[in-house]
Design brief:
eight-stranded antiparallel beta sheet
Length: 127
């Protein structure tokens, strides 16, 4: 990682805490998935990487005729749980819906809210 890229991705994730926020993209056999990850800078002896949610996925590079592509835009909200801001992700596009023998592609327009849970040490979807 370049130092400019690291500095650019440092965000406030709580009233008193900053973190490195990144989007990790994975691809395999024509399927792609992007996940939102947060690495908080705190006083803990170990660096922890928190996976929040999948923010994009598609099968655009496969040979399948049924193509889907979902993208989510995220933002940190002002509401706080266990010291970290809640995260809202607004999804749009299409998604895969499994049927009995195959799958179909259906439109998707949803908003999900994630809150940090200290006991579980992770973000939990609440809406």
């Amino acid at each position: 990682y370049s130092s400019e890229k690291i500095i650019e991705n440092i965000k406030s994730i709580g009233p008193k805490i900053k973190a490195y926020v990144e989007e990790n993209e994975y691809s395999q056999e024509g399927y792609s998935s992007t996940k939102l990850r947060i690495i908080p800078f705190n006083d803990q002896p170990k660096i922890v990487s928190l996976e929040v949610a999948e923010i994009a996925n598609n099968n655009q590079a496969t040979v399948n005729e049924k193509v889907y592509s979902k993208v989510g835009k995220y933002q940190f909200l002002k509401s706080v749980h266990d010291g970290l801001y809640d995260i809202e992700i607004q999804y749009s596009g299409t998604q895969r819906k499994q049927t009995k023998d195959d799958f179909k592609v259906i439109p998707m327009r949803e908003t999900h809210i994630y809150q940090y849970n200290e006991k579980q040490q992770k973000y939990v979807r609440v809406k």
